[in-house]
Amino acid sequence: MKKLIITAAICGAEVTKEQNPNVPYTVREIGIEAEKAFLAGASIIHLHVREDDGTPTQDLKRFQACVDEIKKRSPDVIVLPSTGGAIGMSNEERLQPIFMKPQPEIVTLDMGTMNFGGDKIFVNTENTIINFVEEMNSRGIKPELECFDKGMIDMALRLHKKGHIKEPMHFNFILGIIGGISATPRDLLYLINSIPKGSTFCVGAVGRHEFPMVTMSIVLGGHVRVGLEDNIYISKGVLAKSNSELVEKVVGISKELGRDIASPYEARLMLGLRK
Questions:
Q1: What is the pTM of this model?
Q2: Dmax of the chain from CA atoms?
Q3: Which entry of 45, 208, 242, 263 is 20 to 30 Å from 36 by CA?
Q4: Who contacts 52 (Cβ-Cβ below 8 Å, separation ≥6)?
């Protein structure tokens, strides 16, 4: 079985210091959390950025400052910026990270609209998805296909047939989100069995579902995502002290199951990235 790629989703756009004081907001905090996660075994840092007060932003200068800080501390790590941003942001705002210098190797591409509960709707029309992926293609940036439900896989396959999404495809399944597919073994198997041969996939899940779902991905040959964006606890009722603590836990699980951890160099080879 190939080595395991670990992605650390270090802060997200929604989780706050009120929920866990170790969620990073500032440029320095983000750099430190990314470095600690990398040293613990993560080869990819999934990056949202915040203003110093925690407000989510897609501001290009803020992204650039955070990526520069991460690369200063951990030059080899892969930085995976979000083009999802936060609810209510315009498409122009959300695409800002692709204009960084140097440009990212890989960024997220959300494959559908989500009802996040209440009146929160995260809108991704077909035309939005096509526009985003063509901007990525024109720059040689690989999309990580963010799928919260089976229909989003179908959208990815449809756009692949139309020539917009290139092979080999890399999927990221996030389970247990309100409005998306449930975090159960049955549903994860359904997603995995729905993607084409030759594709790679990563699995994450929210809250208490995180470690059961990522463990299943390890067993089935997939890759994993953990971090404070998805889960603020290291165990029931115990807040995680850092993203690195979550990464260390999944490293331990993986080694117990006989899978070694991929370095950033090995992750780039597996995902077909160009540095």
A1: 0.97
A2: 47
A3: 208
A4: 25, 26
**Single-letter amino acid code for the residue at 1:** M
H helix or E strand, kind and range, residue 137:
helix 126-138
Instruction: Check whether 234 has a pLDDT greater than 80.
Output: yes
Q: Locate the DSSP E strands across 18-158.
A: 44-47, 49-50, 56-57, 78-81, 106-110, 114-115, 121-122, 142-147
pLDDT per residue over 37-72, tens digit each? 999 999 999 999 999 999 999 999 999 999 999 999
Instruction: Note the Cα 90 to chain centre separation in Å.
Output: 20
Q: Per-residue confidence at 118, pLDDT binned at 50, 70, 90?
A: confident
Residue carrying the six token digits 């396959």 = 157
Q: What angle do CA 55, 143, 269 make, to 5 degrees?
A: 115
Please state whether the peptide bond connecting residue 97 to the residue before it is cis, i.e. omega within 30 degrees of 0. no
CB neighbour list of residue 6: distance below 8 Å, 6 or more residues apart: 41, 42, 43, 44, 223, 224, 225, 226, 247, 250, 251, 261, 262
- Above 70 in pLDDT, residue 80? yes
Confidence (pLDDT) at 122: 94
Q: What is the pLDDT of residue 116?
A: 86
